[in-house]
């Protein structure tokens, strides 16, 4: 497994917000963490990339366990989070270059392979035209693509994304989700939080549904999202019909 979370418990503000959560993501898998607001999705991601210290439980990424040096973790795990605001006077290219930091020694300069990883990440996130722009001048969606490009430049084994499509227009939503599928096909393990259950059905191999900090169900999307769960967890009367109402087949 590239990502393994076992029995994870986390307390925040004196309250238990995640209890006994298990999530496993294999290489090549796109795994969605879904659940209502406040159900603990971001907290699980934050424990994985060590933005918070979990209470109990095992958290392991590509064999790098919970107490291993941070630098080892940064070589295998990239995270695109909601907190990533770009408020320094840097160009888009300079932010994406930061993705190479875990692979460089303290005084090392960028090597040819680092520059190639940055160029590929910029191209993949469709940022070539914005490469020399000051990141502080970008729109929300453009900034979100910069954060993704920085993660891609890192060339990780596992990728975490917290609501990666929430600022994106329709074309870029599709573009990012299709890109995640392609990255998974190349062997990456992808764990993302999503609110749009239609995206979850269309793009995820498996889902873990969180409710009040606990795993309510996990498995293939159409097995997991039945009428009873949609009512009890999400508070909607709904059914998953085969085939989405709006089917996007590619970008033009
Ligand atoms: N720093 C904190 N201090 C206290 N409580 C916190 C803190 N961070 C998160 N929480 C609480 O932990 C719970 C889980 O939050 P989390 O952000 O993981 O939920 P989420 O499922 O990602 O929600 P959303 O869909 O709204 O993004 C929420 O009740 C939240 O209020």
From TrEMBL:
PROSITE patterns listed in its UniProt record: ABC_TRANSPORTER_2 (PS50893)
UniProt-listed SUPFAM superfamilies: P-loop containing nucleoside triphosphate hydrolases
ABC transporter domain span: 3-237
Any one GO MF annotation of this record: ATP binding
Segments crossing the lipid bilayer: none
Keyword Nucleotide-binding recorded: yes
Keyword entries, A-Z: ATP-binding, Nucleotide-binding
Protein name: ABC transporter ATP-binding protein
Organism expressing this protein natively: Saccharopolyspora cebuensis
